[in-house]
């Protein structure tokens, strides 16, 4: 195939029509030869997932014995249903005693936690001695889903909340809030420690709903109207170079004016408290910032100190989007709150249903005592080196650092649970094998979860996993709302929506399949729902059979479904359905990436790439460019490719076992050209209403576009690859577009080499852990109607701000 592709450059002088015919002839001949010699890739077969799933769950067995825990129990009870224990610790100790005396019974043992709310003051920890066995698991189970709540934080006495009547305090409130806001003095209350200020403001929950700290505006962003000073930056500091100094008395950050009118009461408040933040996008649409305010004076806002990139409006058609955070003067709707650190007074506008005698108001912050794990975080429940332990049917709420931590061991599982209202992350899984999360719901958290495991140097797989979960409405912006790191991780059948955060992964042999993503990244640019980048060792990460739809970008930098950024290698995008997925289906410009057997519809671009180094001189220049690390930029900074890969897999690790046997293509890639789309495959794809099949962005920063309406500039792509135009398809071949059912009609025959996508299997599935699922036809039909007339690509402040979902307590 390569000899045929190599001659492509000889035809660069031809007219576009002739060039297209020659290109198609070359690619058709090469494609036929490739299929004959190489066959279909292993990940194109359904059974590819078997190694991830065959040993995933323990067998479902009836427990041989049960202990009970109840809210009205006593720890000196025998642990029966009529006389339950009061604490999880008592049940754990009873199991330890049983194991040392009689041993676990056949079927293992189950701790049934009776319905109620349990306040977790200190971390509940299970250790290796608390393990079960594959046929005798130890199960901690809520009596029924959603009826057993583990809550952390500090409960406030709502009876001590009083309506604000003092004239001096009323004057600080927004006119809408006067007469409706309640307050409580926390001068002598332990909970006040959670409101540290200076960016650590804590969280507040009422009756199971996370409340919103007062801000301007309530949803979305205002805009920078005039940049007065860009301010000092840190991104390009040389090694050992220090950023510009600052102090609260002498702020040195950038300065700007809002396009919208800044209330004088906000400036007065800052003079009194000196504690506000500006959040948003000061420079790039892909970089969310949370910066301290240094001064507010005469309608201008100055930042306290340096920022990474400065305040710069790079895209003239889109103003920089920012908001003020922690602003008492903007407490103007139910569910908003503010803690006045100077006077130790908490203000809150109660939500609907608030009752002074029965409502709960929880300060989320201090999470009690315990031994922090490898993550440096404290969890409500921690499993360390346990095996064959299952947690299921619980609600974890009002957490500070973490709800659940799982470190090491095998076959530990969190199932059929809800994790909500957290100041930090929901779950951490670190190491071990076959440890996972399934059939859980994550929402109103900062971040959802992270999973790591396996070993990069030995290529030992962990098979840790997240399956059949719902992840929505989390606050993290950018990559890392879900973090995956390691070898052999499985992420499947999850539903993610209504967020501006996404998945980041630094993995080998990741399998991400049958997931559904929508309405993600609606405030960001240059954003993707699954992202990796700038790594050469990320081999064989397979993203297949996913459905990505309705990524309505705000304008500016493109939003797309999947991406291997900054020359990253090893991504295999296969058999996915992309419908209105922002600007397009996927982006990559590094080696050993594939885009095959996908359907891309109603987007500007199918595949976005960059003009990269392909001539001998260009390739040599890229190798020479590495000398800047350690001189102009810190060693190991992004772009220090060789140093990074060797720090992970060892010096020339690609030439040594087990890497040289597992990924022989990596040696060939590094020795030929690791700086371009070397050995990439873009082929066997369908498109509908896609104006640019390939979009090649110029290295100079200009948009090179297409040479004609039908063919991209193939001469900018390396000859060591396979780049084939997609085939156009019509929506009539699908079962029901109005309900987003993109299964092929029975009378449609796909083109040769295109394998039908198992669309009906995408998304949540019913199983023993999730016995019921949302009606896909119903909710997808509603999404189709909601976004039918809404388009992205051009910024409209009113439309973008309207995309932000209302908090549940404000919905009619």
Automatic annotation (TrEMBL):
Entry keyword Manganese: no
Signal is among the record's keywords: yes
Chain coiled-coil ranges: none
InterPro entries on file: PbH1, Pectin_lyas_fold, Pectin_lyase_fold/virulence
Superkingdom of the source species: Bacteria
Keywords: Signal
Signal peptide annotation: 1-32
Protein's name in the database: Right handed beta helix region
Organism annotation: Zobellia uliginosa
């Amino acid at each position: 195939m390569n000899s045929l592709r190599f001659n492509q450059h000889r035809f660069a002088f031809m007219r576009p029509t002739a060039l297209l015919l020659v290109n198609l002839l070359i690619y058709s001949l090469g494609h036929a030869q490739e299929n004959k010699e190489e066959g279909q890739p292993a990940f194109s077969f359904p059974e590819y997932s078997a190694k991830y799933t065959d040993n995933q769950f323990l067998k479902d067995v009836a427990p041989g014995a049960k202990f009970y825990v109840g809210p009205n129990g006593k720890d000196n009870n025998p642990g029966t249903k009529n006389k339950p224990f009061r604490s999880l610790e008592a049940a754990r100790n009873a199991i330890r005693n049983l194991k040392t005396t009689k041993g676990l019974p056949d079927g293992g043992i189950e701790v049934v936690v009776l319905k109620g709310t349990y306040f977790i003051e200190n971390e509940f920890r299970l250790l290796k001695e608390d393990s079960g066995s594959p046929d005798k698991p130890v199960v901690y189970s809520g009596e029924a889903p959603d009826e057993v709540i583990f809550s952390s934080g500090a409960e406030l006495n709502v009876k001590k909340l009083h309506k604000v009547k003092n004239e001096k305090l009323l004057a600080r409130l927004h006119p809408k809030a006067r007469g409706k806001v309640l307050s409580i003095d926390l001068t002598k209350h332990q909970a006040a420690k959670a409101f540290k200020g200076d960016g650590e403001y804590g969280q507040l929950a009422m009756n199971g709903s996370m409340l919103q700290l007062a801000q301007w505006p309530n949803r979305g962003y205002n805009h920078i109207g005039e940049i007065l000073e860009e301010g000092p930056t840190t991104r390009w500091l040389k090694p050992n170079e220090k950023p510009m100094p600052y102090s609260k008395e002498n702020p040195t950050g950038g300065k700007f004016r809002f396009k919208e009118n800044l209330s004088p009461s906000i400036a007065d408040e800052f003079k009194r408290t000196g504690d506000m933040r500006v959040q948003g996008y000061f420079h790039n649409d892909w970089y969310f910032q949370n910066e301290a305010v240094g001064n507010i004076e005469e309608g201008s806002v100055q930042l306290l100190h340096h920022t990474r990139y400065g305040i710069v409006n790079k895209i003239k058609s889109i103003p920089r989007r920012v908001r003020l955070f922690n602003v008492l003067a903007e407490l103007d709707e139910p569910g908003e709150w503010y803690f006045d650190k100077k006077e130790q007074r908490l203000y809150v506008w109660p939500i609907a249903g608030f009752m002074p005698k029965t409502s709960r108001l929880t300060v989320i912050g201090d999470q009690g005592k315990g031994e922090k794990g490898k993550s440096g975080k404290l969890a409500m429940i921690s499993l360390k080196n346990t095996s064959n332990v299952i947690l299921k049917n619980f609600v974890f709420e009002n957490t500070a650092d973490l709800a659940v931590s799982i470190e090491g061991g095998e076959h530990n599982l969190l199932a059929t649970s809800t994790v909500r209202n957290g100041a930090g992350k929901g779950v951490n899984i670190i190491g071990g094998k076959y440890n996972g999360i399934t059939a859980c719901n994550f929402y109103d958290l900062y971040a959802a979860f992270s999973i790591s495991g396996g070993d990069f140097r030995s290529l030992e797989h962990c098979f840790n996993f997240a399956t059949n979960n719902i992840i929505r409405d989390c606050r993290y912006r950018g990559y890392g709302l879900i973090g995956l790191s390691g070898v052999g991780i499985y992420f499947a059948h999850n539903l993610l929506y209504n967020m501006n955060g996404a998945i980041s992964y630094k993995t080998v042999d990741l399998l991400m399949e049958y997931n559904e993503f929508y309405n993600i990244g609606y405030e960001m640019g240059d954003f993707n729902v699954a992202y990796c980048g700038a790594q050469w060792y990320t081999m064989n990460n397979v993203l297949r059979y996913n459905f990505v739809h309705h990524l309505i970008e705000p304008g500016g930098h493109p939003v797309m479904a999947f991406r291997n950024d900054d020359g990253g290698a090893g991504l295999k995008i296969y058999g996915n359905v992309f419908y209105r997925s922002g600007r397009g289906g996927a982006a990559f410009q590094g080696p050993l990436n594939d885009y095959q057997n996908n359907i891309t519809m109603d987007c500007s671009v199918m595949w976005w790439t960059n003009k990269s180094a392909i001539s001998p001189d260009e390739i040599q220049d890229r190798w020479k460019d590495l000398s800047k690390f350690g001189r102009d930029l810190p060693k190991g900074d992004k772009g220090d490719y060789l140093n990074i890969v060797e720090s992970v897999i060892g010096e020339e690790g690609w030439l040594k076992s087990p890497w040289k046997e597992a990924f022989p293509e990596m040696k060939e890639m590094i020795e030929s050209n690791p700086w371009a789309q070397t050995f990439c495959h873009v082929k066997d794809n369908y498109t509908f209403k896609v104006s640019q099949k390939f979009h090649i962005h110029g290295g100079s920063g200009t948009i090179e576009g297409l040479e004609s309406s039908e063919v991209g500039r193939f001469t900018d792509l390396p000859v060591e690859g396979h780049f084939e135009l997609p085939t156009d398809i019509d929506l009539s071949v699908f079962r029901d577009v109005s309900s987003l059912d993109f299964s092929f009609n029975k009378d449609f025959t796909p083109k040769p080499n295109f394998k039908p996508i198992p669309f009906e299997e995408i998304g949540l599935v019913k199983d023993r852990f999730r016995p019921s699922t949302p009606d896909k036809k119903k909710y997808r039909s509603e999404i189709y109607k909601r976004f039918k007339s809404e388009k992205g690509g051009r910024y409209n402040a009113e439309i973008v701000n309207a995309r932000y979902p209302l908090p549940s307590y404000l919905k009619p």
